[in-house]
Specification:
Length: 195
Amino acid sequence: MKVLYITANPKQASDSTSLTIGGAFMDAYRAHHPDDAVTTLDLCRSDIAPLTLADLSNMADPAGAMQRHARQFAEYDKYIIASPMWNLGIPAVLKAYIDHIMVAGVLFKYGVGGVPRGLLQGKKACVILSRGGVYRPWPLSLLVYDKRYLKRILRFIGIRDISFIVAEGTELHRDKVEQIRAQGIREAQDIASEF
């Protein structure tokens, strides 16, 4: 299996809850799946930038950046995304990456009546999110769209098997950061063993 581990945080892992939990997930995953080929894509240290007019004009060009990124993404069988929540959503670099890979004919296609159909059927994803506040209880859950957006994007491209690990309260409860991370690590290790 080919596995893509995507990170979207400029911090060092020791200073980041999403990267700490993501690292624990990857360690456990590698221990349970030693023959799988894992690629790490650190978006904050990549060439990903907001789409330009040139990118959009060359979207159908096989040598263009969007086609290249979309085809590379489609090559993988499993995806792990580790990201913080920033300003109720995802970091701009993760959104920019999604904009680069969402290419019709590669990750999805338009069917009868223009209804889109995802082309990554049978693949799976695990999304690891960290939040400074606590937004799980309704109605606060309506404020954030990190999890909802990523779930919709993954389902749009055909990925139905999606696990989420959400570590909340790292800024609100600074005295409990280690406990919050430990809980996330336990969840990550459990999911990784069967992922």
